[in-house]
């Protein structure tokens, strides 16, 4: 009989995301808004390495263009919260030593913290050999944050509820994205609050918020792998409040759209701006044009897989 030795270090990876469509409904009693969103996982990854330890600790390092100076390494770090939640749920008595290599912009609206949490759940589950199973890991993911289940699942999916109730969406081919990073972050709750305040101020002029739904054109474009059609149907209700808080982002959107992007969209709650391009050549040209304007630029493709263990 062969026995499998317990691993001493586990390396996992989870992707960042772009919301190609995000409709925000009313604020609910739990402080969250009802959402209808279409997520796409893109090829910027958070890499987590987990090692046995008596305590819960985390170190963070940065990939190109990413500034990790604002990332906490104390108990407020979402990866520590994820590890502690799994330990408490499974009765694991020890801790874990985590290192995170971040390639997703911090506080950029691309779900970097959520990807850390998803990759940490998988890393600790594998390291501790808890055997809790995928459904339980997804349930714990939803407790950690609205975007964490998607970072776990990856691919292309529709999110409803807080964004955490996922149903897979059919998607064909690869989409080419160019990302303009900001040298500041935007707080997600602040952007949602700005949207609520705007809706309150303009109550008499704007139609009441209805049950949010993902536009059929978005789903059709994803199914067909048609970048032009997706560009025409992309939408984000958080874009207007993000631009209101950071007016300089409008010029970034205009610059991308006048340099070959099919369309630009503020990613999630921003401030990262995601440009969809027709093909790799236009993505490379746009990357050069935006870099020449002194913006920090990354390229990514999507959809990509969700959280997985990496064999080193
Ligand atoms: O779930 P997560 O911690 O990522 O959410 C951060 C904040 O974003 C929430 O505290 C809430 O203010 C806002 N949010 C929301 N409605 C959602 C998701 C997030 O209002 N569906």
Task: Outline the structure in words.
The two termini are about 25 Å apart. α1 (about 80-90) packs parallel to α2, α2 (about 110-130) packs antiparallel against α3 and α6 (about 215-225) packs antiparallel against α7. A hairpin with a 4-residue loop joins β5 and β6 (about 165-170). The chain is globular. The model has no long low-confidence stretch (mean pLDDT about 95). With about 300 residues, it is of the alpha+beta class. Helices cover about 35% and strands about 30% of the residues. The chain has two domains: about 10-170, 2-Layer Sandwich (Ribosomal Protein S5, domain 2); about 175-300, 2-Layer Sandwich (Alpha-Beta Plaits), CATH 3.30.70.
Number of helices: 10
Computed CA radius of gyration, to the nearest angstrom? 19 Å
Level of helix content? Answer: 25-40%
Strand content: 25-35%
Bound molecules: cytidine-5'-monophosphate
- CATH topology call of the largest domain: Ribosomal Protein S5, domain 2
Distance between the termini: 26 Å
Order of helices and strands: EEEHEHHHEEEHHHEHHEEHEE
Largest beta-sheet characterization? 8 strands, mixed
The CATH first-level class of the largest domain comes to: Alpha Beta
Number of domains: 2
Q: Poorly predicted ranges (pLDDT <50, ≥5 residues)?
A: none
Mean pLDDT over the full residue set: 96
CATH architecture of the largest domain: 2-Layer Sandwich
Subunit organisation of the chains: single chain
